[in-house]
Give the backbone structure.
Amino acid sequence: MAVEIRAIRESEQEECLALWQTVFGDPRAYFERYFRGDAEYLPDYTLCALVDGRLASAAQIVRRVVSLPGCTLTMGGIANVATLPGHRGRGLSTACLARAIETMRADAMDVSILFTGVAAFYARLGWEETSVPRMSAALDPHRLALSAPGPCPRPYARGDDEGLRSLYASANGERPLTVRRGPPYWRDWIGWDAGRAPGRAMVIDSASQLRGYALSRARGESARVRELVARGDDLDVMAALLADAAAAAASEGARTLRIEMPASAAAREAARRALGSVDVEDGRGPMVRFLDVERLLGGLMPLLLARWSAAGRPGGRIAAREPGGQRAAIVEAAARGLTVRSAAQPAAGALTQSELFGLLVGCERAFARVNDEGASLARALFPRCDPWFWALDAF
């Protein structure tokens, strides 16, 4: 049996689409966008395993630029990891993922994320689990009928696209993890333009501009708000859009509403106004894997230096493990300045990848994981934020 691990060739795309459809069962059009609807796609981003010349396994890298406060990161998303049933148990997916890691590192990507229900499989290759706060509410038709009046949503229509894209960019320009979306991305990846929306889309506008929009979907007894954006975190706009989505979902028989948006103080208050009571609990977040922690922190050094100086140059030391845990990257503040260096052995108390990821995206709970030596430095270097990865950006 001859096994070859390499990037896909254009002539093999049809065979790869058939493989993904066989394994996952989704419509062909869902997988076609990875080759034909992604402006960031390169052939090197589809890694495959061939057995005796036939495609047996594949994995996809989805390159995205995501926001951080004051900068961006280049992310390599992992998608469509699949092996045909007759070839499983031979390490083919593992080999494809190992080659994907090499490709992402060679392309200077900063971090890789993926969403999965089989975390243990990916943990072997260095990805670590994270969690995120999620909001949900029971739908009480009586309570919805008593919602306070506010701005009146209307259906999204042809002609709203430019304003909608502008609203998204203004609200998410520095929200950690949000994808920087251009018009082709809205049109070809998300499939939302010219009056076409992937779900029930409602907007609130004034005479001059859109003030907010929401995309929701109800399926059976459960409904989801997949994206909700309001200019300036306007509470009245958010509450009106949530109340509208909840009423529509309840009319279709839904009993619960999952609100897939950052659980910020403003969002929680808007949900309380619209829905009465809201539950907030930890849910499964993406798995994360850095490609080179020292290189990443070194690239951020101009920004970190500016923050450090603005905070009065506090002393301290933060150590973070490299993937695999055999080495660490250390950020150290002393009289000579702020430096990043590599250490052969991770020190006691070194942050895991998921903990460092939490600092970078501003999760409050991540700061509690930093030891006393680095607490003041961490607060100076990494601003507190409400990160989010929107469902429409899923891969």
About this structure: The radius of gyration is 23 Å. The first strand starts at residue 3 and ends at 7.
